[in-house]
Protein backbone atom coordinates (compact mmCIF):
# COMPACT_ATOMS: atom_id res chain seq x y z
CA UNK A 1 0.00 0.00 0.00
CA UNK A 2 1.21 3.53 -0.79
CA UNK A 3 0.00 7.08 -1.25
CA UNK A 4 0.57 9.48 -4.10
CA UNK A 5 -0.35 13.13 -4.46
CA UNK A 6 -2.41 12.30 -7.53
CA UNK A 7 -4.84 10.33 -5.35
CA UNK A 8 -5.24 13.33 -3.03
CA UNK A 9 -5.18 16.14 -5.59
CA UNK A 10 -7.83 14.42 -7.69
CA UNK A 11 -10.33 14.64 -4.82
CA UNK A 12 -12.34 17.80 -5.63
CA UNK A 13 -13.66 18.10 -2.07
CA UNK A 14 -10.14 18.78 -0.75
CA UNK A 15 -9.44 21.59 -3.22
CA UNK A 16 -5.65 21.04 -2.99
CA UNK A 17 -3.55 23.06 -5.42
CA UNK A 18 -0.12 22.05 -6.73
CA UNK A 19 2.25 25.02 -6.36
CA UNK A 20 5.71 23.52 -7.04
CA UNK A 21 6.42 20.29 -8.89
CA UNK A 22 4.41 20.55 -12.05
CA UNK A 23 5.97 23.45 -13.92
CA UNK A 24 7.54 21.16 -16.51
CA UNK A 25 4.74 19.23 -18.34
CA UNK A 26 7.17 16.42 -19.10
CA UNK A 27 7.69 15.72 -15.40
CA UNK A 28 4.21 16.53 -14.13
CA UNK A 29 2.94 12.94 -14.37
CA UNK A 30 5.98 11.57 -12.53
CA UNK A 31 5.59 14.26 -9.88
CA UNK A 32 1.98 13.38 -9.16
CA UNK A 33 2.71 9.64 -8.98
CA UNK A 34 5.66 9.84 -6.60
CA UNK A 35 4.78 7.59 -3.67
CA UNK A 36 5.10 8.42 0.03
CA UNK A 37 4.31 6.63 3.27
CA UNK A 38 2.18 9.14 5.23
CA UNK A 39 1.45 12.79 5.95
CA UNK A 40 3.05 14.21 9.09
CA UNK A 41 1.71 17.48 10.58
CA UNK A 42 4.52 19.44 12.23
CA UNK A 43 5.71 23.03 12.65
CA UNK A 44 9.16 22.08 13.95
CA UNK A 45 12.12 23.80 12.37
CA UNK A 46 13.85 20.37 12.24
CA UNK A 47 11.24 17.57 12.10
CA UNK A 48 13.56 14.98 10.54
CA UNK A 49 14.21 12.95 13.77
CA UNK A 50 10.49 12.10 13.81
CA UNK A 51 9.98 11.39 10.10
CA UNK A 52 10.27 8.29 7.98
CA UNK A 53 12.38 8.24 4.81
CA UNK A 54 9.49 9.11 2.43
CA UNK A 55 6.78 11.30 3.93
CA UNK A 56 4.92 14.52 3.24
CA UNK A 57 4.98 17.35 5.77
CA UNK A 58 1.83 19.35 6.61
CA UNK A 59 2.64 22.69 8.20
CA UNK A 60 1.03 26.04 9.08
CA UNK A 61 4.42 27.75 9.09
CA UNK A 62 4.85 28.57 12.79
CA UNK A 63 8.57 27.77 12.39
CA UNK A 64 8.99 30.64 9.92
CA UNK A 65 8.96 34.40 10.57
CA UNK A 66 5.51 35.88 9.85
CA UNK A 67 6.14 38.72 7.42
CA UNK A 68 2.58 38.84 6.05
CA UNK A 69 0.12 37.85 8.77
CA UNK A 70 -3.28 36.36 7.94
CA UNK A 71 -4.40 36.66 11.58
CA UNK A 72 -4.58 40.18 13.10
CA UNK A 73 -3.68 38.72 16.49
CA UNK A 74 -0.32 37.53 15.16
CA UNK A 75 2.17 40.39 14.84
CA UNK A 76 4.30 40.67 11.74
CA UNK A 77 8.08 40.78 11.97
CA UNK A 78 10.60 42.43 9.74
CA UNK A 79 13.44 40.19 8.57
CA UNK A 80 16.11 41.14 6.03
CA UNK A 81 15.35 39.53 2.69
CA UNK A 82 18.67 37.66 2.58
CA UNK A 83 18.15 36.19 6.07
CA UNK A 84 14.55 35.23 5.25
CA UNK A 85 15.63 33.39 2.14
CA UNK A 86 18.36 31.61 4.15
CA UNK A 87 15.79 30.38 6.71
CA UNK A 88 13.61 28.79 4.01
CA UNK A 89 16.66 27.52 2.12
CA UNK A 90 18.03 25.72 5.20
CA UNK A 91 14.63 24.19 5.96
CA UNK A 92 14.10 22.88 2.42
CA UNK A 93 17.66 21.58 2.22
CA UNK A 94 17.28 19.74 5.55
CA UNK A 95 14.03 17.92 4.78
CA UNK A 96 15.01 17.14 1.16
CA UNK A 97 18.23 15.51 2.34
CA UNK A 98 16.18 13.34 4.72
CA UNK A 99 14.03 12.07 1.83
CA UNK A 100 10.84 14.06 2.39
CA UNK A 101 8.69 14.06 -0.77
CA UNK A 102 7.01 17.41 -0.32
CA UNK A 103 5.24 19.98 1.81
CA UNK A 104 1.53 20.78 2.21
CA UNK A 105 1.23 24.36 3.43
CA UNK A 106 -1.94 25.52 5.22
CA UNK A 107 -2.44 28.94 3.69
CA UNK A 108 -4.27 31.95 5.18
CA UNK A 109 -4.19 30.55 8.71
CA UNK A 110 -0.99 32.16 9.96
CA UNK A 111 0.65 33.40 6.76
CA UNK A 112 -1.15 35.11 3.90
CA UNK A 113 -0.97 32.61 1.06
CA UNK A 114 2.25 30.65 0.67
CA UNK A 115 5.53 32.50 1.33
CA UNK A 116 7.28 32.92 -2.05
CA UNK A 117 10.64 32.18 -0.40
CA UNK A 118 9.34 28.71 0.56
CA UNK A 119 8.17 28.06 -2.99
CA UNK A 120 11.56 29.10 -4.39
CA UNK A 121 13.44 26.89 -1.91
CA UNK A 122 11.23 23.86 -2.66
CA UNK A 123 11.76 24.37 -6.37
CA UNK A 124 15.55 24.44 -5.92
CA UNK A 125 15.58 21.22 -3.87
CA UNK A 126 13.06 19.23 -5.94
CA UNK A 127 10.35 19.22 -3.27
CA UNK A 128 6.65 19.14 -4.08
CA UNK A 129 4.70 22.01 -2.58
CA UNK A 130 0.90 22.13 -2.52
CA UNK A 131 -1.58 24.54 -1.00
CA UNK A 132 -4.08 23.34 1.64
CA UNK A 133 -6.86 25.97 1.67
CA UNK A 134 -8.14 27.56 4.88
CA UNK A 135 -11.43 25.64 4.78
CA UNK A 136 -9.67 22.24 4.79
CA UNK A 137 -8.19 21.05 8.07
CA UNK A 138 -5.20 18.76 8.28
CA UNK A 139 -7.52 16.21 9.91
CA UNK A 140 -9.69 16.22 6.79
CA UNK A 141 -6.59 15.49 4.76
CA UNK A 142 -5.43 12.68 7.05
CA UNK A 143 -8.86 11.03 7.01
CA UNK A 144 -8.95 11.15 3.23
CA UNK A 145 -5.46 9.62 3.10
CA UNK A 146 -6.68 6.76 5.32
CA UNK A 147 -9.68 6.23 3.01
CA UNK A 148 -7.35 6.21 -0.03
CA UNK A 149 -5.20 3.53 1.57
CA UNK A 150 -8.25 1.44 2.42
CA UNK A 151 -9.60 1.69 -1.13
CA UNK A 152 -6.15 0.89 -2.49
CA UNK A 153 -5.87 -2.21 -0.30
CA UNK A 154 -9.32 -3.41 -1.38
CA UNK A 155 -8.54 -2.75 -5.03
CA UNK A 156 -5.21 -4.60 -4.82
CA UNK A 157 -6.83 -7.56 -3.08
CA UNK A 158 -9.60 -7.72 -5.70
CA UNK A 159 -7.13 -7.35 -8.57
CA UNK A 160 -4.92 -10.08 -7.13
CA UNK A 161 -7.84 -12.49 -6.79
CA UNK A 162 -9.05 -11.67 -10.29
CA UNK A 163 -5.60 -12.22 -11.81
CA UNK A 164 -5.00 -15.46 -9.90
CA UNK A 165 -8.42 -16.76 -10.92
CA UNK A 166 -7.73 -16.00 -14.60
CA UNK A 167 -4.35 -17.76 -14.43
CA UNK A 168 -5.80 -20.75 -12.58
CA UNK A 169 -8.54 -21.06 -15.24
CA UNK A 170 -5.86 -20.97 -17.95
CA UNK A 171 -4.03 -23.83 -16.23
CA UNK A 172 -7.08 -26.08 -16.70
CA UNK A 173 -7.06 -25.73 -20.49
CA UNK A 174 -5.77 -28.39 -22.84
CA UNK A 175 -2.46 -26.58 -23.29
CA UNK A 176 -2.38 -25.71 -19.59
CA UNK A 177 1.29 -24.75 -19.21
CA UNK A 178 1.45 -22.51 -22.28
CA UNK A 179 -1.94 -20.97 -21.47
CA UNK A 180 -0.76 -20.22 -17.93
CA UNK A 181 2.31 -18.39 -19.19
CA UNK A 182 0.33 -16.38 -21.74
CA UNK A 183 -2.21 -15.33 -19.12
CA UNK A 184 0.62 -14.42 -16.72
CA UNK A 185 2.13 -12.11 -19.35
CA UNK A 186 -1.27 -10.48 -19.88
CA UNK A 187 -2.05 -10.02 -16.18
CA UNK A 188 1.40 -8.75 -15.16
CA UNK A 189 2.13 -6.80 -18.36
CA UNK A 190 5.55 -8.39 -18.78
CA UNK A 191 7.34 -10.92 -20.96
CA UNK A 192 7.36 -14.52 -19.71
CA UNK A 193 9.77 -17.27 -20.76
CA UNK A 194 10.08 -20.87 -19.59
CA UNK A 195 13.42 -22.66 -20.01
CA UNK A 196 14.26 -26.34 -19.65
CA UNK A 197 17.00 -27.61 -17.24
CA UNK A 198 19.63 -27.16 -19.98
CA UNK A 199 18.79 -23.48 -20.44
CA UNK A 200 16.95 -23.94 -23.75
CA UNK A 201 13.77 -21.90 -24.31
CA UNK A 202 10.57 -23.98 -24.16
CA UNK A 203 7.93 -21.22 -24.27
CA UNK A 204 8.46 -17.52 -24.99
CA UNK A 205 5.66 -14.98 -24.51
CA UNK A 206 6.41 -11.36 -25.36
CA UNK A 207 5.29 -8.48 -23.17
CA UNK A 208 1.90 -7.14 -24.33
CA UNK A 209 3.36 -3.64 -24.65
CA UNK A 210 6.47 -1.59 -23.92
CA UNK A 211 10.14 -2.52 -24.46
CA UNK A 212 10.97 -6.16 -25.18
CA UNK A 213 14.04 -8.39 -25.21
CA UNK A 214 14.93 -11.19 -27.61
CA UNK A 215 15.64 -14.81 -26.76
CA UNK A 216 19.25 -14.26 -27.87
CA UNK A 217 19.64 -11.58 -25.16
CA UNK A 218 17.89 -13.56 -22.41
CA UNK A 219 19.10 -17.13 -22.99
CA UNK A 220 22.80 -16.61 -22.00
CA UNK A 221 21.67 -15.06 -18.70
CA UNK A 222 19.43 -18.05 -17.96
CA UNK A 223 22.19 -20.53 -18.85
CA UNK A 224 24.69 -18.81 -16.55
CA UNK A 225 22.15 -18.84 -13.72
CA UNK A 226 21.52 -22.58 -14.19
CA UNK A 227 25.23 -23.40 -14.38
CA UNK A 228 25.87 -21.50 -11.13
CA UNK A 229 22.80 -23.09 -9.44
CA UNK A 230 21.28 -19.70 -8.56
CA UNK A 231 17.69 -20.01 -7.33
CA UNK A 232 16.82 -16.36 -7.91
CA UNK A 233 18.48 -13.57 -9.84
CA UNK A 234 17.46 -10.09 -10.94
CA UNK A 235 19.53 -8.40 -13.61
CA UNK A 236 19.29 -5.61 -16.17
CA UNK A 237 19.14 -6.99 -19.72
CA UNK A 238 18.81 -3.63 -21.44
CA UNK A 239 18.57 -0.09 -20.03
CA UNK A 240 14.77 -0.37 -20.27
CA UNK A 241 14.17 -4.02 -19.32
CA UNK A 242 14.96 -5.98 -16.16
CA UNK A 243 14.95 -9.79 -16.06
CA UNK A 244 13.76 -11.66 -12.97
CA UNK A 245 14.76 -15.34 -12.99
CA UNK A 246 13.34 -17.99 -10.66
CA UNK A 247 14.70 -21.55 -10.65
CA UNK A 248 12.07 -24.27 -10.63
CA UNK A 249 12.92 -27.41 -8.71
CA UNK A 250 15.99 -27.77 -6.51
CA UNK A 251 19.59 -26.56 -7.04
CA UNK A 252 21.54 -29.36 -8.68
CA UNK A 253 18.31 -30.92 -9.99
CA UNK A 254 16.34 -28.03 -11.54
CA UNK A 255 13.23 -28.73 -13.55
CA UNK A 256 13.58 -25.44 -15.41
CA UNK A 257 13.82 -21.68 -15.09
CA UNK A 258 11.02 -19.11 -15.25
CA UNK A 259 12.11 -15.71 -16.58
CA UNK A 260 10.06 -12.50 -16.44
CA UNK A 261 11.17 -9.43 -18.41
CA UNK A 262 9.88 -6.19 -16.89
CA UNK A 263 9.92 -2.60 -18.05
CA UNK A 264 8.50 -1.42 -14.71
CA UNK A 265 8.81 -2.60 -11.13
CA UNK A 266 6.63 -5.22 -9.44
CA UNK A 267 4.00 -4.19 -6.91
CA UNK A 268 2.54 -6.35 -4.13
CA UNK A 269 -0.22 -7.65 -6.40
CA UNK A 270 2.30 -8.78 -9.02
CA UNK A 271 4.37 -10.56 -6.38
CA UNK A 272 1.30 -12.40 -5.08
CA UNK A 273 0.33 -13.41 -8.60
CA UNK A 274 3.88 -14.54 -9.32
CA UNK A 275 3.82 -16.83 -6.28
CA UNK A 276 0.69 -18.52 -7.65
CA UNK A 277 2.25 -18.83 -11.11
CA UNK A 278 5.39 -20.43 -9.68
CA UNK A 279 3.27 -23.00 -7.85
CA UNK A 280 1.21 -23.84 -10.97
CA UNK A 281 4.24 -24.06 -13.26
CA UNK A 282 6.17 -26.16 -10.73
CA UNK A 283 3.31 -28.66 -10.46
CA UNK A 284 3.01 -28.82 -14.25
CA UNK A 285 6.75 -29.35 -14.67
CA UNK A 286 6.77 -32.05 -12.00
CA UNK A 287 4.08 -33.89 -13.94
CA UNK A 288 6.06 -33.46 -17.16
CA UNK A 289 9.22 -34.58 -15.39
CA UNK A 290 7.51 -37.70 -14.07
CA UNK A 291 6.36 -38.51 -17.60
CA UNK A 292 9.85 -37.82 -18.95
CA UNK A 293 11.33 -40.21 -16.37
CA UNK A 294 8.94 -42.92 -17.52
CA UNK A 295 9.91 -42.25 -21.14
CA UNK A 296 13.60 -42.45 -20.24
CA UNK A 297 13.10 -45.79 -18.51
CA UNK A 298 11.01 -47.09 -21.42
CA UNK A 299 13.62 -46.01 -23.97
CA UNK A 300 16.41 -47.70 -22.05
CA UNK A 301 14.37 -50.91 -21.88
CA UNK A 302 13.62 -50.74 -25.61
CA UNK A 303 17.32 -50.35 -26.41
CA UNK A 304 18.05 -53.47 -24.40
CA UNK A 305 15.22 -55.20 -26.25
CA UNK A 306 16.85 -54.36 -29.60
CA UNK A 307 20.22 -55.60 -28.36
CA UNK A 308 18.59 -58.90 -27.38
CA UNK A 309 17.34 -59.34 -30.96
CA UNK A 310 13.66 -58.32 -30.62
CA UNK A 311 13.74 -55.64 -33.31
CA UNK A 312 10.17 -56.17 -34.57
CA UNK A 313 8.64 -55.73 -31.10
CA UNK A 314 10.79 -52.66 -30.45
CA UNK A 315 9.83 -51.10 -33.79
CA UNK A 316 6.15 -51.55 -33.03
CA UNK A 317 6.44 -49.94 -29.58
CA UNK A 318 8.65 -47.06 -30.76
CA UNK A 319 6.41 -46.24 -33.72
CA UNK A 320 3.26 -46.32 -31.58
CA UNK A 321 4.72 -43.78 -29.11
CA UNK A 322 7.29 -41.60 -30.90
CA UNK A 323 7.36 -42.32 -34.62
CA UNK A 324 9.44 -44.37 -37.08
CA UNK A 325 12.52 -46.26 -35.90
CA UNK A 326 15.61 -45.55 -38.07
CA UNK A 327 16.71 -48.44 -40.28
CA UNK A 328 20.26 -49.76 -40.92
CA UNK A 329 22.87 -48.87 -41.94
CA UNK A 330 22.94 -46.77 -38.79
CA UNK A 331 25.21 -44.05 -37.52
CA UNK A 332 25.63 -45.02 -33.87
CA UNK A 333 26.40 -42.11 -31.56
CA UNK A 334 27.22 -42.07 -27.85
CA UNK A 335 27.32 -38.63 -26.22
CA UNK A 336 28.97 -37.77 -22.91
CA UNK A 337 27.50 -34.53 -21.45
CA UNK A 338 30.15 -32.02 -20.38
CA UNK A 339 27.92 -29.87 -18.15
CA UNK A 340 24.94 -32.02 -17.09
CA UNK A 341 24.22 -35.67 -16.42
CA UNK A 342 22.41 -37.78 -18.99
CA UNK A 343 19.12 -37.69 -17.05
CA UNK A 344 18.86 -33.94 -17.69
CA UNK A 345 19.71 -34.39 -21.37
CA UNK A 346 17.02 -36.99 -22.10
CA UNK A 347 13.92 -34.74 -21.76
CA UNK A 348 15.54 -32.15 -24.02
CA UNK A 349 16.09 -34.85 -26.65
CA UNK A 350 12.32 -35.41 -26.71
CA UNK A 351 11.77 -31.98 -28.25
CA UNK A 352 14.70 -32.56 -30.61
CA UNK A 353 13.08 -35.75 -31.89
CA UNK A 354 9.70 -34.03 -32.23
CA UNK A 355 11.21 -31.30 -34.42
CA UNK A 356 13.37 -33.60 -36.58
CA UNK A 357 12.03 -34.52 -40.02
CA UNK A 358 13.89 -37.86 -40.05
CA UNK A 359 13.72 -40.97 -37.82
CA UNK A 360 15.78 -40.78 -34.61
CA UNK A 361 15.93 -43.00 -31.55
CA UNK A 362 17.80 -42.21 -28.35
CA UNK A 363 18.20 -43.81 -24.93
CA UNK A 364 20.57 -43.93 -22.00
CA UNK A 365 23.52 -46.27 -22.48
CA UNK A 366 26.03 -46.96 -19.68
CA UNK A 367 25.16 -43.64 -18.05
CA UNK A 368 25.55 -41.66 -21.29
CA UNK A 369 23.26 -40.80 -24.20
CA UNK A 370 23.02 -43.18 -27.18
CA UNK A 371 21.47 -41.89 -30.40
CA UNK A 372 20.63 -43.98 -33.47
CA UNK A 373 20.03 -42.38 -36.86
CA UNK A 374 20.30 -43.40 -40.51
CA UNK A 375 23.76 -42.69 -41.88
CA UNK A 376 22.26 -40.39 -44.51
CA UNK A 377 20.83 -38.17 -41.74
CA UNK A 378 23.83 -38.26 -39.39
CA UNK A 379 25.33 -34.88 -40.30
CA UNK A 380 22.02 -33.07 -39.90
CA UNK A 381 21.53 -34.69 -36.49
CA UNK A 382 25.06 -33.80 -35.37
CA UNK A 383 24.37 -30.15 -36.24
CA UNK A 384 21.27 -30.25 -34.01
CA UNK A 385 23.26 -31.88 -31.19
CA UNK A 386 25.98 -29.21 -31.24
CA UNK A 387 24.29 -26.85 -28.73
CA UNK A 388 24.12 -29.64 -26.13
CA UNK A 389 27.90 -29.56 -25.61
CA UNK A 390 28.31 -33.34 -25.88
CA UNK A 391 31.54 -35.23 -26.41
CA UNK A 392 30.35 -37.66 -29.07
CA UNK A 393 31.75 -40.99 -30.19
CA UNK A 394 30.61 -42.33 -33.55
CA UNK A 395 30.52 -45.79 -35.07
CA UNK A 396 28.54 -47.67 -37.72
CA UNK A 397 26.12 -50.62 -37.62
CA UNK A 398 25.41 -52.31 -40.95
CA UNK A 399 22.73 -54.52 -39.39
CA UNK A 400 20.78 -54.66 -36.14
CA UNK A 401 22.89 -57.68 -35.12
CA UNK A 402 25.99 -55.46 -35.04
CA UNK A 403 24.42 -52.71 -32.91
CA UNK A 404 25.91 -53.85 -29.60
CA UNK A 405 29.42 -53.83 -31.05
CA UNK A 406 28.80 -50.43 -32.69
CA UNK A 407 27.58 -48.94 -29.40
CA UNK A 408 30.62 -50.28 -27.60
CA UNK A 409 32.88 -48.76 -30.27
CA UNK A 410 31.07 -45.41 -30.08
CA UNK A 411 31.40 -45.45 -26.29
CA UNK A 412 35.15 -46.07 -26.55
CA UNK A 413 35.47 -43.30 -29.11
CA UNK A 414 33.58 -40.89 -26.83
CA UNK A 415 35.81 -41.80 -23.87
CA UNK A 416 38.86 -41.21 -26.03
CA UNK A 417 37.47 -37.84 -27.19
CA UNK A 418 36.86 -36.86 -23.56
CA UNK A 419 40.47 -37.69 -22.64
CA UNK A 420 41.78 -35.86 -25.68
CA UNK A 421 39.77 -32.78 -24.76
CA UNK A 422 36.64 -31.25 -26.21
CA UNK A 423 35.88 -27.71 -27.23
CA UNK A 424 33.02 -25.62 -25.84
CA UNK A 425 30.58 -26.96 -28.44
CA UNK A 426 31.60 -30.58 -28.03
CA UNK A 427 33.64 -32.96 -30.16
CA UNK A 428 32.90 -35.87 -32.50
CA UNK A 429 35.37 -38.77 -32.60
CA UNK A 430 34.91 -41.64 -35.01
CA UNK A 431 35.97 -45.10 -33.85
CA UNK A 432 38.07 -45.47 -36.98
CA UNK A 433 40.24 -42.58 -35.76
CA UNK A 434 41.37 -44.60 -32.77
CA UNK A 435 43.47 -47.19 -34.56
CA UNK A 436 44.89 -44.57 -36.89
CA UNK A 437 46.21 -42.75 -33.81
CA UNK A 438 47.75 -45.98 -32.51
CA UNK A 439 46.79 -48.64 -29.98
CA UNK A 440 48.61 -46.82 -27.19
CA UNK A 441 46.14 -43.94 -27.49
CA UNK A 442 43.41 -46.25 -26.20
CA UNK A 443 45.13 -46.39 -22.83
CA UNK A 444 43.68 -44.19 -20.12
CA UNK A 445 46.24 -41.40 -19.86
CA UNK A 446 45.84 -40.87 -16.10
CA UNK A 447 46.40 -44.57 -15.29
CA UNK A 448 49.30 -44.85 -17.75
CA UNK A 449 51.04 -41.80 -16.27
CA UNK A 450 50.75 -43.25 -12.77
CA UNK A 451 52.26 -46.60 -13.85
CA UNK A 452 54.97 -44.81 -15.84
CA UNK A 453 56.06 -42.89 -12.73
CA UNK A 454 56.22 -46.13 -10.73
CA UNK A 455 58.24 -47.89 -13.45
CA UNK A 456 60.65 -45.09 -14.37
CA UNK A 457 60.66 -43.07 -11.15
CA UNK A 458 63.98 -44.56 -10.02
CA UNK A 459 65.65 -43.45 -13.24
CA UNK A 460 64.25 -39.94 -12.93
CA UNK A 461 65.47 -39.71 -9.31
CA UNK A 462 68.93 -40.97 -10.25
CA UNK A 463 69.21 -38.38 -13.03
CA UNK A 464 68.07 -35.60 -10.72
CA UNK A 465 70.32 -36.54 -7.79
CA UNK A 466 73.46 -37.84 -9.55
CA UNK A 467 73.34 -35.85 -12.77
CA UNK A 468 73.18 -39.03 -14.87
CA UNK A 469 71.32 -39.24 -18.16
CA UNK A 470 69.56 -42.57 -17.84
CA UNK A 471 66.15 -41.49 -19.17
CA UNK A 472 67.55 -39.76 -22.31
CA UNK A 473 69.78 -42.83 -22.84
CA UNK A 474 66.81 -45.23 -22.61
CA UNK A 475 64.71 -43.10 -24.96
CA UNK A 476 67.48 -42.87 -27.58
CA UNK A 477 68.37 -46.57 -27.32
CA UNK A 478 64.72 -47.64 -27.80
CA UNK A 479 64.30 -45.26 -30.73
CA UNK A 480 67.20 -47.08 -32.42
CA UNK A 481 65.51 -50.46 -31.71
CA UNK A 482 68.16 -51.46 -29.16
CA UNK A 483 71.10 -51.10 -31.54
CA UNK A 484 74.10 -49.83 -29.52
CA UNK A 485 76.21 -48.26 -32.29
CA UNK A 486 73.71 -45.66 -33.68
CA UNK A 487 72.46 -44.97 -30.14
CA UNK A 488 75.96 -44.27 -28.80
CA UNK A 489 76.70 -42.02 -31.78
CA UNK A 490 73.57 -39.92 -31.19
CA UNK A 491 74.33 -39.73 -27.46
CA UNK A 492 77.98 -38.94 -28.26
CA UNK A 493 79.28 -41.54 -25.77
CA UNK A 494 81.47 -44.66 -26.08
CA UNK A 495 79.53 -47.91 -26.55
CA UNK A 496 80.99 -49.18 -23.24
CA UNK A 497 79.51 -46.12 -21.51
CA UNK A 498 76.17 -46.92 -23.16
CA UNK A 499 76.39 -50.53 -21.99
CA UNK A 500 77.12 -49.34 -18.42
CA UNK A 501 74.11 -47.04 -18.46
CA UNK A 502 71.86 -49.81 -19.82
CA UNK A 503 73.01 -52.08 -17.00
CA UNK A 504 72.08 -49.36 -14.49
CA UNK A 505 68.67 -48.99 -16.13
CA UNK A 506 68.04 -52.73 -15.99
CA UNK A 507 69.04 -52.84 -12.32
CA UNK A 508 66.96 -49.81 -11.25
CA UNK A 509 63.84 -50.91 -13.14
CA UNK A 510 64.25 -54.64 -12.51
CA UNK A 511 63.78 -55.25 -16.24
CA UNK A 512 65.30 -57.59 -18.80
CA UNK A 513 66.16 -55.23 -21.66
CA UNK A 514 66.67 -58.15 -24.03
CA UNK A 515 62.93 -58.96 -23.77
CA UNK A 516 60.92 -57.34 -26.60
CA UNK A 517 57.73 -57.01 -24.49
CA UNK A 518 59.73 -55.28 -21.74
CA UNK A 519 61.10 -52.82 -24.32
CA UNK A 520 57.56 -52.13 -25.60
CA UNK A 521 56.32 -51.42 -22.04
CA UNK A 522 59.27 -49.09 -21.39
CA UNK A 523 58.56 -47.23 -24.66
CA UNK A 524 54.91 -46.69 -23.69
CA UNK A 525 55.93 -45.68 -20.15
CA UNK A 526 58.33 -43.06 -21.55
CA UNK A 527 55.51 -41.66 -23.66
CA UNK A 528 53.20 -41.15 -20.66
CA UNK A 529 55.87 -40.15 -18.12
CA UNK A 530 55.36 -36.44 -18.95
TrEMBL record:
<dbReference type="InterPro" id="IPR051448">
    <property type="entry name" value="CdaR-like_regulators"/>
</dbReference>
<dbReference type="InterPro" id="IPR042070">
    <property type="entry name" value="PucR_C-HTH_sf"/>
</dbReference>
<protein>
    <submittedName>
        <fullName>Purine catabolism regulator</fullName>
    </submittedName>
</protein>
<dbReference type="InterPro" id="IPR025736">
    <property type="entry name" value="PucR_C-HTH_dom"/>
</dbReference>
<feature type="domain" description="PucR C-terminal helix-turn-helix">
    <location>
        <begin position="470"/>
        <end position="527"/>
    </location>
</feature>
<dbReference type="Pfam" id="PF13556">
    <property type="entry name" value="HTH_30"/>
</dbReference>
